[in-house]
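Usage

Read records sequentially. Each one opens with the input sequence:
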Amino acid sequence: MKQIYLICLFLFLTQLCVSQTVAHFSIDKRKGCQPLTVNFVDSSYGGTVTKRDWDLGGLASNLANTGRNFTTAGKYTIKLTVTFSNGDVKTAFDTIHVYPLPVANFTLMNPADTAGCMSHKIQLKSLSTTATGTITKYNWDFGAGGNNGADPTPFFTYVNSGKYNVSLIVENNFGCKSNAATQYNYIKVYPVVNASLTIKNNFSCD
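and closes with the structure output:
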């Protein structure tokens, strides 16, 4: 009876020591702003892998090392199914989060300030939006100098006459930057009229 017990114990411990096949993979980044390029590496262990089937959030692959460029924001489930030489079939999962870009937009606090006499002081107002997180940085280009910072309603003074483009790029707390919102010839600044100069426009700078 004791011998049977020892044999059973030996077989049980031997079974515990046998390598277990495990599906596993690594990801170089799990979240980021669109477009987001992510690389995947099969690191399954416990046996020899004879077949791989990746589902990269709707895109298939059978390579050991693969990748995908995620151009659309969203949450993507990544699945790797591996077949081992002993017939085991195992599956591993992970998730990728792709954040949308914020959208930059702006206007003048006073719509009449699109035109004025030098020196012409204006104040702008950001109308930018972000679907995730919050906007933390505002990169203004007034066409005569920039203003980087966290001011959604900056002031700026134009000291020279001319026509100026104004643009804005915003960034949210995930580090996602918008495309530039630009309004061309948005600000028109006229010189002060003197007795020997005639300006042919409808704006008076007396």
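Summary fields computed downstream for this record:
- Residues 2-17 form the longest helix (16 residues).
- The helical segments are 2-17.
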